C-alpha cells in the first residue's frame, strides 16, 4: 500500500496533477507514521524513498550502506590496527 501511494504521488506530480499527488503524499506520510519504521543506525524514516535495506538477526532494519561500513570497519581493525 505504501509503495502504491508513493508511486502514484510521483506519477501525478510528473503529470502536473498536484492536487491528486498531494492526496497520495498525505497517505504516504500517514502510513509511515503508523508503521514507525526507522533505521536502527541513523534513525531516519524508512520508506519515504526507494533505498536498499538489510534486516539484522535481531529483526532491526538498517540501510545497506551501514552494513558495508560495519564490515569495512571490522576489516580495517583486523588488518591494519
From TrEMBL:
<dbReference type="GO" id="GO:0033130">
    <property type="term" value="F:acetylcholine receptor binding"/>
</dbReference>
<dbReference type="GO" id="GO:0005886">
    <property type="term" value="C:plasma membrane"/>
</dbReference>
<dbReference type="GO" id="GO:1900075">
    <property type="term" value="P:positive regulation of neuromuscular synaptic transmission"/>
</dbReference>
<dbReference type="GO" id="GO:0007271">
    <property type="term" value="P:synaptic transmission, cholinergic"/>
</dbReference>
<protein>
    <submittedName>
        <fullName>Uncharacterized protein</fullName>
    </submittedName>
</protein>
<dbReference type="InterPro" id="IPR052480">
    <property type="entry name" value="RAPsyn"/>
</dbReference>
<dbReference type="GO" id="GO:0031594">
    <property type="term" value="C:neuromuscular junction"/>
</dbReference>
Amino acid at each position: 500500500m505504501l509503495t502504491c501511494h508513493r508511486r502514484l504521488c510521483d506519477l501525478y506530480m510528473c503529470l502536473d496533477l498536484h492536487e491528486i499527488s498531494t492526496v497520495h503524499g498525505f497517505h504516504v506520510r500517514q502510513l509511515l507514521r503508523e508503521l514507525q519504521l526507522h533505521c536502527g543506525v541513523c534513525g531516519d524514516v524508512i520508506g519515504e524513498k526507494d533505498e536498499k535495506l538489510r534486516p539484522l538477526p535481531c529483526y532491526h532494519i538498517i540501510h545497506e550502506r551501514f552494513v558495508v561500513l560495519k564490515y569495512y570497519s571490522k576489516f580495517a581493525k583486523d588488518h591494519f590496527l
